[in-house]
Amino acid sequence: MPDIIRLLPDSVANQIAAGEVVQRPASAVKELMENAVDAGATSVKLIVKDAGRTLIQIVDDGSGMSDTDARISFERHATSKIKSADDLFNLHTMGFRGEALASIAAIAQVELKTKREEDEIGTCISIEGSVFKSQEACAIPTGTSFSIKNLFFNVPARRNFLKSDAVEFRHIMEEFERVAFAHPHIAFSLTNNGTEVFNLAKGNLRQRIIALYGNPYNQRLVPVDESTNIVQISGFIGKPEFAKRTRGEQFFFLNNRFIKNGYLHHAVQGAFEQMLPHDSFATYFLFLEVDPHTIDVNIHPTKTEVKFEDERAVYAILRSSIKRALGQYNISPSIDFNQEMSMEIPYNQKGVPVAPGIHVNPNYNPFSNNNPGISDGNNFSQKEKSVPSNWQEMFTSHMQKEDSLSENSIMEIKEGEQLRHSDLENANENKTSGKIWQLHERYILTPIKSGILVIDQQRAHERILFEKFLRSIEQHNAPVQQILFPETMEFSPSDSAIVTSLLDDFNALGFDLRSFGNNTFVVHGIPAGMEESNCVELLDGVLETYKQNEQELHMQPRENIARSMAKQAAVKPGRSLSILEMHALADELFACESPSHAPDGKPAFINFPIEELDKRFKR
């Protein structure tokens, strides 16, 4: 039997390695930006076309490479970061494996231009699918320019699995933000399809956060600063009232390297205990500095997961430092154990009595109407309250007025009950008796022939609005209610990209939303029937729900925005409904295509049969 095990060709091995290192265009952006940082660059430019499919270009002013280094940098496991295995536990650079350039060159058309400061002329290398094409001299400023063209051109299956340009570009922006946050002392810029998205000047962390997320964040940040022998913690956390329903604005950096760690995230959430709703997440930008010998960053190809030598100690210190920061800035109550808890009494001043004086009027007679005022600095003279002589007539007219109001209310309820309403139980073919009640301002109860029907008012309204909004998006016929004073909304660049991609769908829902440039939008109109004062909160909530659904459910954009809009606009528990509103809600629910469930799949109503009641009462 012949031997069956053979060595793979380098081109195939590089493509397999690329599947781990370069999963999408954003992965290549991350690797190349980290290389620019390691090269000592003070300015890094990222240029993208077609969300990285056509072009990804990184230009930096770092140290550059020699001709030999430029050529050998595309070999697998070629690196200047480590020399022995011991160096893996003393890392101070972003990259170290030497796989990135070889993996990228295996699945793209690559052009590298680089020059050192001491060299008079630079070098230009062209590689296509791991095949070396040319190397020649070229004129270039000190630094490196790395161009990736036609990513995955020789792996069409991987290219077909890429998402839309909007989704892929958001992933690129996420990687760009992570590197930019970690190095605020470096200037960064991002250009997409010829349009400048970011131009970040050098500064500190607070300035970098504001530059990326907008001026409103200046008032939302609380500084964190803690230094121990185990870990040094610095950065900012967001105030509880600005918590988001998505995890987007949560950043951990370990020795200036972005990491993901659910255990540390739990520590942050625990520090905000009882200050956040159960479905909200705190915003944080936290930097942890530890001895490199106490961590292992070589456990995942993307280097975003690490292992700590003493994870429990880091957890405890992180949680207590955030609690301390919240207490210092009066976000949460704190107790100063160094201060005497007894009441502080001010020092006695000359001429000022220690206690107020007591003044007694010996001539005061409680049974007399002619008492002199009490002269203790205030005049509290008694005044006799006059009683009108026609008090009996006023009382009689008041009672008649209340009786008439009660009769009108009863008539209004009777008229509401006499209004035509449709079959409330189409699914079970049972008809209601016309009586309807609200329980705990959350459920709607109505008797039917087979028992009793319990409707969840919020889920029912979500189902109604979801189908209504879907029809509006498809037909573009939703009525618009123009508002008198347009509202201006400023988004972060990543959120602005989402709103821009959904602008037509928002307007199809009944909004009159227009771009004003520089990540700013102006609301000129809202869907008819909605309150004008809540339009900003409504759009913010829709955007947060949309991002949450996109992360967890991966649904189509139109269905996502209709579902997000329905969730925000639906009537919430705690709102009292009138008889007419309850009847209308029930009628519209059972006119829906799928009345039994809310858009998230949870039941909108429950049919409680009479047999179940008999069983409970043991009849």
Write a concise keyword list for the protein shown above.
619 residues, Heat Shock Protein 90, Ribosomal Protein S8, Chain: A, domain 1, 34% helix, globular
What is the SS-derived class? alpha+beta
Distance between the termini: 80 Å
Give the class-level CATH name of the largest domain: Alpha Beta
DSSP strand content:
15-25%
Folded structure, characterized:
With 619 residues, the chain is an alpha+beta fold. The protein folds into 3 domains: 10-203, Heat Shock Protein 90 (2-Layer Sandwich); 212-328, 2-Layer Sandwich (Ribosomal Protein S5, domain 2); 419-619, 2-Layer Sandwich (Ribosomal Protein S8, Chain: A, domain 1). It has 17 helices and 22 strands. It has helices spanning 10-21, 25-38, 67-72, 100-106, 156-160, 165-182, 205-213, 262-271, 311-328, 391-418, 457-475, 493-501, 503-508, 535-552, 557-569, 579-589, 610-616; strands at 43-49, 55-60, 109-115, 122-128, 131-138, 143-149, 187-192, 195-200, 221-227, 232-238, 250-254, 257-259, 284-289, 295-296, 307-308, 437-439, 443-448, 451-456, 480-490, 512-517, 520-527, 605-609. The strands form 5 sheets. The chain has an 8-stranded mixed beta sheet with strand order 5-4-3-6-2-1-7-8. β3 and β4 (122-128) form a beta hairpin. α8 runs parallel beside α9 (311-328). The termini are far apart.
